[in-house]
Every structure is written in structure tokens, then in C-alpha cells.
């Protein structure tokens, strides 16, 4: 007997003896569980004499080793097994890697139908590229350097979704650079912490240098350092103004911008002692500089509206930052050391996104693409880097040569789509036990590309009412959530059954190419919308939010433009000529880049909207209007 379940808390299934001996049962029943609780799988069976079934039932309780189960999940394993006299129990963990204690409640809604996750089962399925990548580099490994009080723990918390308590050690004034810090809230991240460099003391610089050299010599990508953030925050009294400035301390004219320890560390990097390891200078608490400028403007005699005060304060803060901090830093350090100014306060998320973008780009260029993808998966602030990570995953295998059947010979389109689907949602890494990998959601996505079978996709440019921009569609989402919690109705989603073409075996054809291309672009842009919706709720997803993200895309101008451009591309390309095998890949990336929402625009709208009402409301997949 094999019983596979998400996890169970006293659930009951009844079978005859014959059924019991051959039972392979999937159980999907979700509860919050901690190591202090117990889980029991109770089996009910009747006694048999020949073909007669005796009255009454017998029970057998199988106790689940909860501590062992939780250890396996927190170690990043995909499943946990426990043998017993009649078979074995297999607990499959959520694809997004959520900790068991944090699994979503179903709130009384019907569970979603599980679907294949694209992994190999009995040699029939395709191996997700993300599995191969995470085998090479399962976690993004970063060294964070900075003195107490510079905001290291706040920065890590906001960017990687790690609770303050989990990284509170970083602001205690104590650090062991060799200690690996990880968190059950994000098992795709490992941190090393080092104190900053005190004036006149280079001992810690030597410790950091030795540590970096040791890590750089390690053979496995997963063991090497992938990036260093040097975090700095100092105030000084400007010689030209009486207000405080935020930056590395700048002494009197002609003096050095960098203290001895910092200067030695930077020189080690510039001289090549750290190899190609990206080192990024991070100046924190930029909001305090803006606040000071805002206060100065408000106290001036000039009359300004509130909006003008905010705008002028940001402009003046940026000018001051460039004049007093950035240019002197670049003059002494050069332009080879990237630097970012950030704030973890509300309204400044775009600064965090820029830091992640710079980190991703440098890790990809100088370390390893697998490490860059790991950083994309680990970070929880920038949808743009999630998209970039998805593109890099797709570029490695399954988005390539879509027209040439190089990766899909003998597979059904369902198998092809499932492995593509698995790779995309793995990068976004929502807090979701199974909804995004459910059959219902996959049916929705497949039905979205059904229209491409028409071969005459209308030109949306000729339709003045072709739909809303993506941002306008998202604004409509906010409006819908601010009113009564009416169910979200998706007209095309009338059943939970895949269309017939999904079960067809892959063959080189225009229809196949259209559908695969559209599925990739559509799913990526729906994930972007979903990220926007749940970005302030620790990326917890629900059916309602998934349907809203889907509806916003399907009713926007983006969807008809994407489908029309794909249809035109396929018609104009000779898919049987393999001279340009990646023209489909190039078109996919072009369409995603064209229709993605810029992070700054997304954050601005999200900040204006604030808390979204109805975040705790869920509903069935199929809602009747």
C-alpha cells in the first residue's frame, strides 16, 4: 500500500481487503502542524472469511514521525517516507518549498485536484530544469558585511522574506563569518555575517579575506560565495548645510572618503584577490535623507503643495546623494564596484528591487547562471528578477527549439506543458501548497491558448475596444476587492477537463508551436499579476487571487497582442527549416519583455493601494455568474 498525501490530521478512507492490498491512495488534506503535535493515519478494515465479510470493523493506527517529517522538509527534501508492515507512507511537500508548519488552511473550500508536477514518475515524465539547477545550486549564498545598526537584518527580512527574529543576530554586535544562517521561511537562502571594519583595525578585513579565498577555492557552485553586500550607514555634518546627510563618512576637504579597513577591503577586490566574486556597496536608510529634505522644504518660506514637497524632497535628496556621497565614492573606488542606495521603509521598495537586479546581473555574469537563478528564486521583492530567472531557466532547455521537437519526442502535449509549467512556478516560489500546480489552474491556462487554433487571430490594433492596459486591469482588481466579496467569474473556464488537444502526442506543427509559445508567455504574465496581488502578504496565494490575476491578464490588451504576434510569427516562419532554431525563443522573450510591468510602476501602484481587502477570502475554482 502506498498512501501519498500533502499531510493529514486524522483523515479516514475505507477499503475492502482486496482494495487495501493494492491501494495507492492520494490524500490532500491540509492543517497547520508543529513538531509538538502528532499525526495519525487511521486505517479501517473488515474481517473476511472466504467471500463473506464479517460485521464490524477493525482499526489500525499508523503514527507519523512528525519531527522527522519536519526535518526532511526543512532540509529542502521533496518528500518524506515511512515504512510499516503493510506498505509505506510518502509525504510529498509543496513544490514551492513551504515549511509544513506554514501550510495553508483550505478554509472549508474543496481541495484542488492534484496534477503531475512534471517530475519523472515511472520514466514517463520530463525532468524539470529547475530540479537540475537546484541540484547544482540549491541556495543563494551571500556574505553580508556591516556594523551594528546599519540595518542588515531589516534588509534581509524585506528582500528574502525572513522574519526579523531569524536574522536578529546580525544586529547584536557579534558575528562568526563561518556560521551558515538559514531559515525555514526561505530555504533557498544561506547567509554569512561579518561585522564592519573599525577605523584603524584591519583584523576583520584579514578574516573576511581568508574566508572569501577559502570559499572561492571550493569546487561546487553551491559551496562558493555568490555575492557580498557591504552595508554602510553614517551621518555627517555637511560643511555647506546644517542638515545631516546619509552616506559613508566624508571628512574635511581633501580627506579620504573611506576608512582604513574599508579602503583595504575595496583594494583587495580591485586587485583581484576576490576573483570574480561580486562585491556591492549598499547605503541604507535613504528614506531618512528624504525626510530631512522634506522637513527643510516644509520649513522654508516658499509655498508648496504636499505633493510638491514630496517631489522636491526626493529630487534634492538625490542631488545631495550624488554630490556628497556617490561621486566622491566613485572618484576613490572607481566604477568597478557597484553601489546602491536603499531603504526598507514603505514606499521605497523600488530601491530594494534595484539592488536585487544588480545582484542578479553580477552573479549571472561573474559567478554561475545556476547561482543567479537561485538568487531569483530566493528573493521575494522584485517581479522583474523573477521574470529574468524564468527566462534563464527556459533558455537552458524547454523553451529552446520548440518547433523542432528536440526536447519532446514521444511526449504528449500535457507532459510538455506540465514541465514548462513546473519550471515557471518554481522560480516565482509563492507560498502555495498545490493551487498553482493543480489540474484546475492548468486547465485554465490551457483554455486560454485554445483560441490560437483558429489560425486567424484578429489584429488587436484594429479593435478600439481591445481591452485595458495591464496596470488598468490590475487597478480593476483592486476595485473588485474593495467591494463585496463577489465570486470571480471566468467565462472561458466552464469545466475542469483538459481539451482533447492536450492529450495529443507532440508533433511539429504550427498549432503546437503557437500553443507552447502562448502558454509560456501567458503563464509568465499571469504570475507577474499574482505577485503584485500577494506581495504584501508573504506571497500567500488563494484561488481567488489566482483567478483575479488570470482575469486581469485575459481581459487586458496584452493577451490579444501576445496571441496575435505569436500567430503572425508562426505564419511567417518556416518551422521546418532549422537554420534559426531559436526564433521562437527570441519571440517569447521579446513578448515577455514588451508586456511586463516595470517594477517601479508596479510598486507605485501597490504603495498607493495599500492593504488589499479580502485577502483572507477564498472561493471555488468554478464560480457561476
Automatic annotation (TrEMBL):
SUPFAM superfamilies: P-loop containing nucleoside triphosphate hydrolases. The lineage of its organism: Eukaryota, Fungi, Dikarya, Basidiomycota, Agaricomycotina. It comes from Rickenella mellea. This is G domain-containing protein. One of its GO terms (molecular function) is GTP binding. Pfam families: MMR_HSR1 (PF01926). It comes from the Eukaryota. Residues 141-215 form the G domain. Gene3D superfamilies: P-loop containing nucleotide triphosphate hydrolases.
